[in-house]
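Dear Dr. K.,

Following up on our conversation at the group meeting, I've run the structure prediction for Ribosome maturation factor RimP from Tsukamurella tyrosinosolvens. I'm pasting the input sequence below exactly as I used it, so you can double-check it against your construct before we proceed with anything downstream. Let me know if the numbering doesn't match what you have in your notebook.
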Amino acid sequence: MAYDETAVKAVIAPHLDAAGLDLEQVKINNAGTKSSIAVVVDSDAGPTLDELADVARTLSAAVDDADEVFGAQAFTLEVTTPGAERPLTEPRHWRRARGRQAAIELADGTNLLARIGPLTDDGPDGGTTVTVVLPGAKGAAPTTRDLDLAEVAAAAVRVEFRRPNPKEMELSGITPGRVESGTEPEDLTGEGAGAAQRNED
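The predicted structure tokens came back this morning:
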């Protein structure tokens, strides 16, 4: 059976809303008896492993009651978080990644490696803007730049294996040594957040 993404989202979204989680993505692998559905969720505080397990059980029960969407074929249901190098496609993603380093491609083809600063909703054209911190060249002090999110073609968080520059962190509005809300410890080591799995019979 081929699973329809829109129908799957319609079943699971209300349960995620009730749990205070954002549905970031549904990844469907239609492969017969080896089919799988991965539900990617997030929140401002970052879901804990216990919360992921609870949501997985809730979604499993919802799946059992939605045969018209999921049928009787066995598949694996997984609930997980976006992981360390998460894409930044919504304003909430930028807000949650404040203080993190990101690879940013602008609509004009410019590529930036910058640290994410504060987000504001009062841009010059009424849009959302983000302040990013650009590292200084050859020992120069870092600088800031305001970007309208409409200028961004693609962006994703990058894992850092060195201690962040304290001045960059200060300019991003993060006190050095402090983990911003929504940044899981697993992300800081380059590991994705945990997941709960269930085989649907």
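Two things stood out to me. Helices lie at 5-18, 49-64, 67-70, 91-96, 166-172, 185-188. Residues 49-64 form the longest helix (16 residues).

Best regards,
J.T.
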